[in-house]
Amino acid sequence: MLNKSVNFGLLGLLVAISLTPSVQAQQQENSPSIPAGETNTMPQQQGDQRFLNMMVHHDQKTLQMADLAIQKAKNPQIRALATEIKTEQTKEIAQLKALHKQLYSAELPAGTMNCMGMSMGMGGMGGMMSLESLENAPNFDQEFLRRMIDHQQMSVKMAKKAAENANEPQIRNLAQAIIKTQTAQLEKLQQLEKVTGDR
């Protein structure tokens, strides 16, 4: 009788041990608090969200610069291009926010965007000081073109990285559209800069 009990006990232990890895895997799969790096998808998902956050913040800075140009630029071509950029970037921000809500069932957190922007030197007090110095630049038109070209080059660089590395196909598609739109804007900015003076 004792031998049977021991045998049944050992059998139960072996079954439990054989099931443990699959149970643990299932628990990890269902757990919302898995640290980053323990799955293949978690780091990439964070990268996708980070791109959406940073691109919205970047585009908001673009709108601020464009508003200044609409008000202060002497060259009517620069004012017209700034208006075009503002229109296109406003649509782009709406697309980015809608995609974030679709993919992650949440609005973009403003605090997160500011934090991420500051990490790349695009936001916070530094961003405000940059706008103030642009507004007070001796030659506003030239300074606007110079800064907007640099700004849009950074935007295209961010979008190219997302187009290559994003996990979500919707993000890759939107990144490709951003590259196309902002590359066209860059060409117009650079052409205007050639007409109005050298960098």
Give short descriptive properties of this protein.
199 residues; 7 helices; mainly alpha
Draw up the topology in text.
Blueprint lengths: L1 H29 L10 H32 L3 H29 L5 H10 L4 H12 L4 H26 L3 H28 L3
Helix pairs in contact: 2-3, 2-4, 2-5, 2-6, 3-7, 6-7
Short summary:
The chain is an all-alpha fold. The protein has helices spanning 2-30, 41-72, 76-104, 110-119, 124-135, 140-165, 169-196. It contains seven helices and no strands.
- What would you call the quaternary organization? single chain
Give me the strand/helix succession: HHHHHHH
Q: What is the averaged pLDDT score?
A: 78
β-strand amount: under 5%
Count of individual helical segments: 7
The count of DSSP E runs of length 2 or more, i.e. the number of strands, is 0
Main sheet specs: none
CA gyration radius, whole angstroms:
26 Å
The low-pLDDT segments are 4-42, 112-128
* Overall form: elongated
How far is it from the N-terminal to the C-terminal residue, by CA?
94 Å
Global structural class: mainly alpha
Helical residue percent? over 70%
